[in-house]
Amino acid sequence: MASGYQIAQQHLGATAAYLWRKKGLDISRHDTTPTYCYHAAVIDHQIQALRGVLPKQIALHYAIKANPNPSLLAHMAPQVDGFDCASLAEMQLAINASGGRNAHISLAGPAKSTDELAFAVKHRIIINCESASELNRIADLAKTQQTNAKVALRINPPFAFKGAGMQMGGGPKPFGIDSEQIPELIAQWQADAHIQLVGFHLFAGSQQLNPELIGQMWLASLNLIADWQAETGFSPEQIVLGAGLGVAYHEPDTPLDLNDLKPALREMAICQQQLGNPYLALESGRFLVAPAGVYFTRIVDIKFSRGETFLLCDGGMHQHLALSGNLGGVIRRNWPLVVPELLDQPHDTAVQIHGPLCTPLDVLGQNQPMPANVEPGMHIAVLQSGAYGASASPSGFLSRPALQERLI
């Protein structure tokens, strides 16, 4: 059976696992639990690895919803070209992290509030518009402010992102404007005094581990835009595509080999030229930060019940909802969990791992392989926890103590 370090290598890849072993899994740093630790060097590695395969003319944006921790954003800001936001608070975080450089900050999401739209208009943040009626609201706000608003039409494409862990486009969706409506909206708004139509945003899905399907989605998106350019004569200044890059959470997942994306990226660069060289960016969240995060919880008690061993921990679903399988999962699957104090020992004994909450949903692991000699007081490190962790969890449930987050 695999050791804890081998589990880390399998799910994080060799470089990220080495960086965590070298520094991040030093338990002396994490005496207070539960806590999320974000490893700056792993973030750097993920960004550099993706930059290494991107053509120079394709930019990289970070989706703040994956992890809005201010220290993390400040660290990432010099290394990415823009931020995508989904709320007023995220826009403020992006402005603070980028030092007021708002040119490539965008706002997305259905049902944007008037305050959110007004803030975006005032600060020249690009609004990824989700509906025809939202365009009218934006124009009215821009008129009130005696300015024009920077708007990208968010597209609900006619195709689905096959194999994506979460589908965001294709069919009827609350996200984006149906593709068949786009030409009419371009004709209606491209010359409007209060709408500066800058281009398009398309996010078809996320958590994809098949590089061929990722490339097909990117190219289908650009071909769709090329068809509109030919039909309407509108040449976009900016195109931002959700990258859709996944990470290896569960058996038998393996990390993406970014080199497999190079053929599609070369074709994208050609499409970019054919479209008149607009600013073209890939927007990524999970891929950049998930491997950089570990959720540390402490084993409080070990209980034996009718033939089963239960490890009972001080952390749970109120701080890591995705780990419990309650953040979009249909069937709960085990995550990569290791005991840092026993990192080189085989994790070969199946146990049940639960948190402190008074609900059977508070599951951290089911028949999860752990070292046979694990003891109370030791830690469990939940790998791949840098995205959709603390900020995506119901931390107020049962009024449990607040957790810590730190960048190391």
Description:
The protein is of the alpha/beta class and 408 residues long. The chain folds into two domains: 4-37 and 290-407, Lyase, Ornithine Decarboxylase, Chain A, domain 1, CATH 2.40.37; 102-284, Alpha-Beta Barrel (TIM Barrel), CATH 3.20.20.10. It contains eleven helices and 19 strands. The chain has helices spanning 4-12, 14-24, 40-53, 70-76, 88-98, 114-122, 132-144, 182-189, 211-232, 262-274, 286-289, and strands spanning 35-38, 58-63, 82-85, 105-107, 126-129, 149-156, 166-167, 177-178, 195-202, 205-206, 238-242, 279-284, 293-305, 308-313, 337-338, 349-354, 363-370, 379-382, 404-407. Strands 1, 13, 14, 15, 16, 17, 18 and 19 form an eight-stranded mixed sheet that branches. An eight-stranded parallel beta barrel has the order 2-3-4-5-6-9-11-12, surrounded by five helices. The chain has a two-stranded antiparallel sheet with strand order 7-10. It starts with a helix and ends with a strand.
